[in-house]
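Please fill in the sequence for the structure shown.

STRUCTURE ENCODING:
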């Protein structure tokens, strides 16, 4: 197993066992339930957006799913907390391109940071939907949708 793959496995397992930002958020301004029928993952993403509508003041998630879907939600909420909503949309685009193989995670122009770890799912197409579920739910939440699906 390559070093990158080993790190990927470790981080996925760690975030699955101890998910960050895993709690309901009664004060959330945005929430969306994401469903991945292919794997059976169900993840609700909560966001508290500031009064200007441009800043993700707080983020959390809850749900049940496979290790990849939970680890992805955990890393996503960690990375986007306190960031502008515009940055979240930009990162969603980069993340989607990366897991589909269209973006080189080692390029200098992306903003993926720790999210680069998920480049491992490129080799397992059925896992792409697990890795992107929380992101679809977040985009749904920002677009005021109650549900989002990977299908
Ligand atoms: Zn899954």
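FILLED IN BY: designer on duty
SEQUENCE:
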């Amino acid at each position: 197993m390559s070093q990158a793959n080993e790190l990927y496995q470790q981080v996925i397992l760690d975030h699955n066992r101890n998910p960050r930002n895993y709690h309901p958020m009664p004060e959330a301004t945005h929430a969306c339930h994401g469903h991945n029928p292919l794997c059976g993952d169900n993840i609700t993403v909560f966001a508290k957006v500031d009064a200007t509508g441009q800043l993700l003041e707080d983020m959390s998630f809850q749900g049940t799913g496979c290790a990849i879907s939970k680890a992805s939600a955990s890393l996503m909420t960690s990375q986007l907390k306190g960031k502008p909503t515009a940055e979240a949309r930009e990162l969603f685009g980069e993340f989607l391109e990366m897991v589909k193989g269209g973006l080189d995670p080692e390029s200098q122009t992306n903003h993926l940071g720790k999210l680069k770890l998920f480049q491992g799912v490129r080799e397992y197409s059925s896992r792409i939907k697990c890795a992107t579920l929380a992101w679809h739910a977040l985009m749904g939440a920002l677009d005021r949708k109650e549900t989002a699906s990977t299908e």
